[in-house]
Amino acid sequence: MADRGFHWLMVVCALSIFGIVVLIAYELVLRSQLSWHAFGLRFFYDSFIDPDTHQKSYWDPVNGHFSAVPFVYGTLVSSFLALLLAVPLAIGVAIFLTEMCPKVLRGPLAFLTELLAAIPSVIYGLWAVFVLVPLLREQVNPLLAAGLGWTGFFDNSNPTGLGFVSSGVILAIMILPIISSLTREVISAVPHSQREAVLALGATRWEMIRMGVLRNARIGIVGAIILGLGRALGETMAVTMVIGNSPEIHRSLLATGSSMASVIANEYAEASSDLHLSALTEIGLALFLVTIIVNACAQVLVWAVTRGAPAQAH
C-alpha cells in the first residue's frame, strides 16, 4: 500500500510540471485574446502611420496601435550578437578544460566558469551600466564607427553607449557558462577510443581534437548553442538596463532598441488600456512559445550525443 501511494505521488509530481506549463499557456492565450482579435498575425509583421507625425510607427499606446516588429527585431539582433561573441569563447573554454587543462586548474576554472551562471541578471545589468556602457561609449563605439561606419551597421549617432552592442555583450557573458558547461558535457561523452584511434593514425593533438572530438560532438555542441540562444531570447533585466528601450528599428548596431522581454518589464505595470495589456501579453505568449521550442530542440540535440551519460574529466 505504501509503495503504491509513493508511486502515485511521484506520478502526480511529474504531471504537475506539464500542468504548470499548460496553465501558463492557457492564461497567456486568454489574456491576449483582445490583441489577437484587433490585429491578428499583422501584430508580428505590420506597421502603421502615426496620425500626428504621419510617419511609420510601430508602438503607440496613446492611439491604441500596437505592433511587435521592433521588439522581435531587437530580440533577434541582440541574441545574434551574443551568440557571435559567446560561442567561440565558450567552445574554447570547454576544449581547454576537457582536453588541455592541468588537473590542478581544471576544478577551479570549471567552478569559476559555472559561477557566472549563478550571478543575478540585475547584477550583470548594474555592471554593464557602470562599466561596460561607458567603455563602449568612450572607446569601442568610436573605433567601430571610424573603421566600419561605411557599412551602415556602425553609425555612431547615438552618444549614450546604450544599444544593441551593449546588450549583445552582456548577453554573451551571461550565456557563456551555459554553452561552455553543456559543451564540456558533450565532449566528455565522446569515447576515449575515438581519441586513441586518431592519435594512432599519426594525428597531432589539434587534429585529434578537431577530427576525433569536435566532429563526433558537433550535434551536441549545436544543441548547447541553441540552449544558450534560449537563455538570450528570454533575458529581461540586464537587457532592459542597457538596450535603450526604444520601440524603433535601426540598421546601426550602435543604436538603441528594445526586446520582447524588456518591453513587457517596462510597460506591463503601467499599461494604459486593456488593449495595451493584451498586446504585451501577446508578446509574452510569443516569447513563451519560442523559448519552449528552442529549449526542446536543444535538449534533443544534446541528448543525441550524450545519451544521458554523465560528464567525466579526462
SSE ordering: HHEEEEHHHHHHHHH
How many β-strand runs? 4
Would you identify the regions where 5 or more consecutive residues have pLDDT less than 50?
309-314
CATH topology value of one domain: MetI-like fold
Radius of gyration: 23 Å
Q: Biggest β-sheet, characterized? A: 2 strands, antiparallel
Termini, distance in Å? 46 Å
Reading off the top of the CATH hierarchy, the class of one domain is best stated as Mainly Alpha
CATH superfamily assignment of one domain?
MetI-like
Helix % is over 70%
pLDDT averaged residue by residue:
87
Q: What is the 3D shape?
A: globular
- Strand residues, percent: under 5%
CATH architecture term of one domain: Orthogonal Bundle
Describe this structure in words.
With 314 residues, the protein is an all-alpha fold. It has a domain at 70-262 and 293-306: MetI-like (MetI-like fold, Orthogonal Bundle), CATH 1.10.3720.10. The protein is 70% helix and 3% strand. It has a two-stranded antiparallel ribbon with strand order 1-2. A two-stranded antiparallel sheet has the order 3-4. Strand 1 (48-49) and strand 2 (56-57) form a beta hairpin. It is globular and about 75 Å long. Mean pLDDT is 87; it is low at 309-314.
What are the main properties of this structure?
314 residues; mainly alpha; two-stranded antiparallel ribbon; 11 helices
Short structural summary:
This protein has 314 residues and is mainly alpha-helical. Helices cover 70% and strands 3% of the residues.
